Amino acid sequence: MRRRFASVRAKASLGATAVVAVALLAAGVSVLLSLRSNLTDRADREADSAAREVALDIASRVPGRTDYAGLALPDEEDHPVRVVDENGRLLAAGKDLERISGAGLPAVTSVPSPTAGESTEPGGASGGDDGDDSGHGRGRSGDDDDPTVGEIGRTSYGSGSATVDGTTDDYRFATVEVTDGTGATVLVHAGASLAARQSAVGTAAVAMLVGLPVLLLVVGGVTWLVTRRALRPVEGIRREMAAITRSEDLSRRVPEPGTHDEVARLARTTNETLTALEAAVERQRRFVADASHELRSPIASLRTQLEVGDAHPELLDVPGAVADTVRLQRLAADLLLLARLDAGEAPGQARFDLAALVRAEVSQRTTDRIPVSLDLAAGLEVTGSRGQLARVLGNLLDNAQRHAKASVSASVRREGGRAVLAVGDDGSGVPEAERERVFERFVRLDEARGRDDGGAGLGLAIARDVARRHGGTLTGGRSPAGGALFELRLPVVEPRLPAANADAR
Predict the structure, then answer these.
(1) Angle at CA 297, nearest 5°, toward 403 and 451?
(2) Which pTM was predicted?
(3) pLDDT classification of 227: cutoffs 50, 70, 90
(4) Which domains does the chain have, with CATH numbers?
């Protein structure tokens, strides 16, 4: 089954478009809700103003009677109004108002017309009571238990619809309580049209619905183009890396853009990696070639001696064959150790005294042509592979024995938090310009020296690699005797305290 491939450009474009879409939708909903709320508040204020104008007219009537038929009502199309008593009986309404629904009141039918000798007061008072208004003023009551005449109460709001002259629209209604001239509480319902709110919200919603897809297309297209331009150098790097892989030519390099962004850093890092890889491959090739060359000599010599011995047993050079075999064995062991070091094999974690290691190794070198003088500071413990560090010491001593004239020295001392193992001789020394090159593999400064005397040129290379694996360093310099001086520095491990002392602390 083929895996679906989605480019970074497509992912970036889709991601940016999705983020913008969510942000625009959230902003659009917030704008619409805010616009709707603001226009609703405006309609509430208009309805409240119309209701209170009518309530003020009712409250300002002469105490004792109220003629609702003479109320001044606002324009019915903009502000439909009706007045009812506490029992829901209709007292007044616009002449063209046919119905109000949604305000919690019964539908409007018609306003009763007063007959002769009757009044339209909610309390049913007759016209003979007109003269009984002396001593009454606005805001007064004829009984302590009656509500205050002319008092306008609180306002409540609600939504509904009203039919005016056959046309039904949505309105926002304000309901105001007012005490009329007779002391009765009546309710004034006044509406404010929501047509402006609906028109504005609808227009804004349509504009957003039309503009949102267009804006998303613009965002997606711009993101696609910008991402394409930004990733063009990456595609160039990919093509060049593919070409390098096909051709196996590690000398080629990927193009580096002239910018200072992440892509440029990626290109520079890629080229640095290619440089290191080319050097590693070249070093490996040279290592294989040198190893083959070094192995060819003892193998050819050993074969020649065996062939001669087979044809003429009396001419067989047994000591020479043994020497070639030992040399071959040592070379194979060195190559195996280098392979293990290159593979990143971690050293052991054994603790041992460095001076004791030097003393033990030197005591076993009974065939050295020059005795080794020792100057050892005891009590300096290090951790690692005792065998590998013994190999380092052996390689340094072999090198000193090979070049020394009359003296070889080995010392152990402490410098700060490091133990220093120094091996020196009184030979010709190493030129300062060659003190780093001698640590390269298969390097022999004296090419005229025979291979049997000079070795394969792996001793110092092995010694430095082992030192690095143990967290130390190996450097070359000039000894006080005038010859070469090699110093191995390793981290010191503080000795363990006795149990009694540790408990005391």
Answers:
(1) 10
(2) 0.50
(3) confident
(4) 1-110+147-249 (no CATH), 262-342 (1.10.287.130), 350-491 (3.30.565.10)
